[in-house]
Description:
Class F sortase, signal, hydrolase, about 5% helix
Amino acid sequence: MARIGNTLIASVTAAALCSGAWLLHGTGAHAPPQPSVTEGRPDPGEEALAAPALPPSPPDRIRIPSIRVNAPLTGLGLTAAGSLDVPPAGQKNLAGWYEAGTTPGETGTAIVAGHVDNAEGPAVFYDLGALKRGSAIEVDRRDGRVARFTVDAVEVYQAKDFPDDKVYGAAKRPELRVITCGGGYSKATGYQGNVVVFAHLTGAA
């Protein structure tokens, strides 16, 4: 598949992850953690501190040790409406990456998305909002390399205020975005926004 820019992804992508079926039907279910304001975007001066970019290679797995994520990655395309497709909701430990865009580790903005829950309970990115600045994210690539990212910020946005350019826009260094649902929950509307992790490449093995 020919690779295209992330800017074609619409903000409705984020809404597709956010049914909240477990919280709607679960007895005593609790909403997932949300990031605090102290985890917000770092100063622009920090953007120079990045490892050299890797050549393109599809990713196979994502690991976030501090929140116990260790999940395979499936390729995601675009829907007919132009939004990013989402992983099958029934596979709660599966995340997806935008395979027509940047691969994790190469220069640009790589996109990974996953559900926060499904009808059975918490899913792969349930604890994403608890992630802290400086946390590590590792992505196993098909070329045998492991791309190591450091979290710059963890932010939450209401759906109506989702910043497409900030999340999906081009980057001059290797960056990663990890996206799931958040922003509060209502039984009438489901999740009302999204948690977005911003990270950049700091090493490779």
